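ok here's the first one, seq then struct tokens
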Amino acid sequence: MDKIKRAMEVAVAQGGVLRLDQALECGMCRSSVDRYVRAGVWSRVMRGVYRVIDMDTADMRVRAAIAALPDAVATHETAAEVHAIPHLQRDLAVVTVPSRTTHVFPGVVVHRTNDLDPSHITEEDGFPVTTMTRTIVDLAGKLHPRHIEFIVDDLVAAKRLNLDDLGLLVEAIARRGKPGSRTLHGLLSDRAADDTGLASRLERLGLRVLADAGLPSPHTEYPAPWNANERIDAAYPSAKVGIEWDSKRWHTQVAAFQRDRKRDRFALLEGWRIFRFTWQDLTEVPYEVVSTIRSALSAPAPTQ
């Protein structure tokens, strides 16, 4: 195979860059490399690293950085995109290298760390990337606490993240002074104290969505007018508006489904409107939840 073609194939696999040692392994000589650089066909990215193909996308820049920087790993938002972690900006090129290095790379955010253990790294899409759990730990150092809580609860609800695994990793590396440590310790402490599981997390998220939108605080666990032994998750008695945080994403028993519909019929007979929202509603279309409740509160309550 032609030596230039071999070099180009290596560069393509690495996001458009080629190291000098790789060019030599492909059969090129140092003078040929220098000639390409002088002619402007290749451009020097850093010592011993050349851009052979334009890096037009974040994916290409990440691959190029991993090829060029020693022990580089895709992390943070890039790792989140690889793992399809929701609610984060896409098309960012982010890698992490050992703290002893001081490299930079064009078009790529380069973090440095001394606690990236091999067990925190997996391979996806042909390059090294932090695991889901390690990615959450890294993101906690950059995101607002509410944002990381939002992400963690969504992943736990989808059974894509295990809180015990997250806790073990936090205990291992979230030392005092490490960005995000306080956020993660607080988050895990809150979840450990929550012995009612995912349904309670759903309720907490729902109340936060309402509060962040400036809506009045509802009464929680409000006695149902149609049955003193039942409770409404959240209620606005003066407007006869009730909210049920519907955890059927995790519990789909037929009996529970039928019981809830029976409750809704009794509520209507008492002049109450019951609105049911799921985890998907709260995480993907919270504005619709807010709009619905705001409209319900401004509209006259139905007569019996």
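and now the second one, same deal
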Amino acid sequence: MPTLLFLAYALAAFLVTFFVALLYQTVIYCFALKYKRNDLADVAWGFGFVLLGFFWLLASIQATFAFKIALFCIAVWGLRLTFHIGNRFLSHKKEDRRYAAWRKEWKWVKTRSYFQVFVLQAFLMSIILLPLILHANFGKPVSIWLVLLGFLIWCTGFYFQVAGDYQLQQFLKKRSSKGKLMTEGLWGKTRHPNYFGEMTMWWGVFVILFAPVSVAHFVVTLVGPLTITLLLRFVSGVPMLENHWKEKYPDQFKQYAADTPMLFPKLFKK
């Protein structure tokens, strides 16, 4: 297929995905308005990927084995994340500190929240899902060895995210943990096991679906895992959390940052 024609089809598939994501996010925004909690967007994030994934399962002419495995991985990740963040959402009566701060800082807060939180999330979902979207439209059978390799990469990321979240939960339940920074378990191997896990999972999905039909296909597909990696590393994940730690635990964080890698785990740390 000529490159320009491929890019036109890819853009059309992306826009369809974005339209469905936007409908979903608009519904979530209406609930956020009702309950005055824009952090509902965090709860909706994971499930949005599941919804879009199954949309393309129904829309694709023939879902390959690799597509089904990738969709399974995305569904497990998305549902687990929604349940995890949903529990946190229900246990806190107040809006998350980030959204509460934006509510105070922003003018035209309702309009800006819709575009800067919910519409932006719909756009990012559609970008990150590009490997699945393009495979649904242009996919060909993938080597079983690549599927297996990608699944093992995904499992590694899933372990880091789930185990990291669980260890943090248990740490926060202890009275002795009050006023302390979590530096135990996986958090002693990497400062962000959950973010490292999420990045790794999306690279696993990329490998599972790796069957480029052209150079353009490969480049556009690569945008998906690169987006989530750059987003977590430089925008909404690591920087925001580390700035919070620097303010709340200045002395502990300085030592923690000196001893522990930011992302890639130091597996043999003493």
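notes on #2: The CA atoms of residues 29 and 114 lie 7 Å apart. The mean pLDDT is 93.
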